[in-house]
Write a structure and sequence with these properties.
heterodimer, A: six-stranded antiparallel sheet, B: alpha/beta, eight-stranded parallel sheet, 12 helices, 9 strands, 37% helix, globular, Amidohydro-rel (chain B), lyase (chain B), Metal_Hydrolase (chain B), ACMSD (chain B), Amidohydrolase (chain B)
Chain lengths: 137, 369
């Protein structure tokens, strides 16, 4: 499993997202209140750039007229047909039997860990200024 | 340690298809409220500023039902230079026409002068929209063709507008909406069909419009989702009216295009019409042939919203009845229920039918061959 450094933490503050292509795959990384989530940026329904949609909550109802709004800011709604997916897991709420979006682990690693390696060819000075967001693929 | 550092690409990739296609339902929008003023006499600019427009039903400033997305449009279709979705030619080229290899794009402007009570204002606005379509769209991109928007409730002025535009290669059809003051077969609309037939232009009937009546036959529904499915009911009554008032009999060369209301309902409507026509034909002696014959000979259907049954064989059965030569592919760009060309048709369609579906039928109908 390869790990990909995508941004210093400062460049991905809470409430923002970053679009990138890793190994030919379009991926979006979200910072939701300090937690990071990676998601394939392609809707399994008709192929829209899924993560350009709004982040919403999930409206659920046990009975007509009783509506609960949960998971606020954790559901991505496709910009085309409004299909909804949980950004934590990629689970579809429209057609969970047939569709899910690939979710990728994203987390923060300290700068020191992303630059150290087992081999040292020649000594160079590495300045570590901050932490980085890393996606595992 | 296999860490890779990377830069973000410019934008997310867009799905593409290499096959050339026609897109028979594209909605161009105005970037600003006053964008039509250069095409309107001072008298009408003044009228709009002082009195606004009076429609056949309230809430003209917005649609009667809130939509699933702003402007009922794709969230990713806002042009980078600002303005509503569908208002920028360069962005439409980049997002729709180029990546999907659209060879023919038929423009169907909404929010025009149709369905306005003041018929002179309606005619002026429709004419302005038509000038604007040439200036802003069709003269700048040869792939795009316009629909002649007409003041639908005033058949005579509508016919005059059609005759004025007849022969102008910027236009490939006449545009009506499905919700009107009366069902579309009524006599007040006949001058439109006569002029369209003379000009050799199909008449497109697009979902929506403001006719003043409840938008379903059973009254005002509660939800947008009911309005969405109500379009097919509305088109069904419009089509029944066209058949039973004898429009197709009277104008045998008239071609109608049912736009954005599905087509899965066509066989059952035709079967019912045929059955009752056998028993009640003395009531409508001007309808000389079984209704299904007129429908199959004189009606075309755009695909968006494409029927999506669980078994693809069900879809193929419906299309077989309608005819593979009658379907016109459409995306409905930039609206939120957009159909992606590469995903919309299930596997198992012959190469000939596929070509007709995506391009051939439209080229033939709109005279592009």
């Amino acid at each position: 499993m390869a790990r990909h450094v995508i941004a210093p933490v400062d460049e991905l503050p809470p409430g923002t997202r970053k679009f990138l292509e890793i190994e030919g795959r379009p991926i979006a990384v979200f910072n939701i209140k300090g937690e990071y989530f990676g998601l394939m940026n392609r809707c399994p329904h008709q192929g829209a750039a899924l993560c350009e949609g709004p982040l919403i909550g999930l409206a659920q109802s046990k009975d007509p007229g009783e509506i609960e709004y949960t998971k606020l800011g954790e559901i991505i709604r496709c910009p085309w047909h409004g299909w909804e997916f949980d950004i934590r897991t990629g689970q579809s709420y429209c057609d969970p039997r047939r569709f899910r979006v690939k979710a990728y682990a994203a987390h923060v690693e300290p700068g020191a860990s992303v630059v150290k390696g087992p081999y040292v060819a020649e000594t160079v000075t590495v300045k570590v200024e901050s932490d980085y967001v890393v996606v595992e693929l | 340690m296999n860490i890779q550092f990377r830069e973000s690409p410019e934008a997310a990739s867009t799905p593409t298809t290499k096959t050339a296609i026609a897109d028979c339902d594209i909605h161009p929008a105005r970037a600003t409220r006053t964008e039509l003023y250069p095409y309107l006499a001072k008298r009408w600019q003044h009228h709009l500023e002082v009195y606004g427009v009076h429609a056949y039903q309230g809430m003209m400033e917005g649609p009667p039902y809130p939509k699933a997305q702003p402007n009922a449009s794709r969230r990713d279709a806002y042009p980078p230079e600002g303005g509503p979705q569908g208002s920028s030619l360069s962005f439409m080229q980049k997002q729709l026409l180029d990546p999907n290899n659209v060879q023919l794009g038929v423009l169907n402007p909404l929010n025009t002068g149709q369905g306005i009570r003041n018929h002179e204002l309606s005619a002026a606005l429709c004419s302005a929209i038509n000038d604007w379509q040439i200036d802003k769209w069709t003269s700048k991109d040869k792939r795009l063709k316009a629909s002649i928007v007409v003041g639908n409730e005033d058949g005579l002025s509508a016919a005059a507008e059609i005759r004025e535009r007849a022969g102008d290669k910027n236009f490939v059809q006449v545009l009506l909406l499905s919700r009107n003051v009366e069902p579309l077969g009524q006599r007040r609309y006949w001058p439109i069909y006569q002029a369209a037939e003379e000009a050799g232009l199909p008449v497109g009937v697009h979902a929506f419009g403001f006719g003043g009546n409840p938008i379903t036959p059973s009254g005002w529904p509660s939800y947008y989702i009911e309005e969405m499915v109500g379009h097919s009911q509305c088109q069904q009554s419009a089509l029944a009216s066209l058949v039973l008032e004898g429009v197709f009999e009277r104008f045998p060369k008239l071609k109608m295009v049912m736009i954005e209301a599905g087509f899965g309902w066509a066989p059952s409507l035709a079967w019912r019409l045929d059955k009752v026509w056998q028993r009640l034909r003395s009531e409508v002696p001007h309808v000389k042939r079984p209704p299904s014959e007129y429908i199959r000979e004189q009606v075309w259907w755009t695909t968006q919203p494409m029927e999506d049954p669980e078994r693809r064989e069900d879809l193929f059965d419906v299309i077989k009845w309608i005819g593979w030569d009658r379907l016109l592919f459409a995306t409905d760009y930039p609206h939120w229920d957009y159909d992606e060309p590469s995903r919309v048709l299930p596997a198992g369609v012959s190469e000939d039918n596929r070509e007709a579906f995506y391009l051939g039928n439209a080229r033939k109908l709109y005279g592009m061959t």
